[in-house]
Amino acid sequence: MRIFGSRNPALLIVALLVVLLAASEPGARSLSIPADSPDLIAQQADVWTALKTDDGILFIWNRKDLGFTLSIKGREIKPLGDGENIFFAVDGLPFQIQSLPIGNFAPDARKNKLDDKGILLAHRDWESKFIADELLHHKLVVQSSNVNLADGSAALNWQFDVPKEVGGDAKKHVYLTVVRKDYLILLNSVVNDAASEETVRKFLLDTMNTLKASDSPLDVKKLQESIRKGSGP
Q1: Among 8, 40, 174, 203, which one is least packed by beta carbons within 10 Å?
Q2: What CA–CA distances, in Å, run from 155 to 1, 121, 141, 179?
Q3: Whole-number Å distance between alpha carbons of 134 and 26
Q4: Which residue stretches of the chain are H helix?
Q5: In the structure, how many helices (H) and strands (E) does the chain have?
Q6: Could you tell me which of 12, 11, 182, 3 has the C-alpha nearest to residue 106?
């Protein structure tokens, strides 16, 4: 199930459930990051790259007119999926990174001078409606709250309870979204018996607070070299 370039919402719960189920099966294709692994642990040309760091990975995504990095911290990080869908297991916690053009869900946002908070709410409504109507066929009760990142920019935290009919061990899906230039950046994870809501929300916020965006493409080789030298990304 393709997400990059899709006209569907950024997170497809079905895709996440399928990926996690596949990862739990014997012989499943996933990539762990042991201490002796190469620095470059996952890459899709011209799309995204993940570089190993001392405390996790540096995630790099060069999109058209926007490059950004996120520092993901964890003792064991496993990329999951087929290379097109950006899912990780971070110390066992399922985690997704996504970005999509604002025009996908709010084509008149810039014309109507919608501010970042308005754009974030438009995405929440668009995404949650698709999940409820097309994936789960079940009404969702969405809870949301505004969040300020460490740099002062606006973010939106929103979540919903996973209907029991869906099955699995996920109790809630939790999202954190921000706007950068003409893109929305989304982080997502799930609350389950092993991870409380407080733990998940803190992980997403801590990760989003490492976000660094650039108007020009990021040089992966230079970032890799700075990590090797210990000077950080």
Answers
A1: 40
A2: 28, 10, 20, 8
A3: 31
A4: 13-23, 116-130, 197-208, 220-229
A5: 4, 12
A6: 182
Q: What percent of the chain has pLDDT over 90?
A: 64
Contact status, residue 18 vs residue 36, Cβ threshold 8 Å: no
What pLDDT digit, counting tens, does each position of 19-68 carry? 333 333 333 333 344 444 455 444 443 568 999 999 999 999 999 889 99
DSSP classification of residue 75: S
CATH number of 13-227: 3.40.1000.10
Mapping DSSP to helix (H, G, I), strand (E, B) and coil, where does residue 181 land? coil
Distance of CA 204 to the CA centre of its chain: 9
pLDDT tens readout for residues 129-175: 999 998 888 999 999 999 999 999 999 999 999 988 887 889 999 99
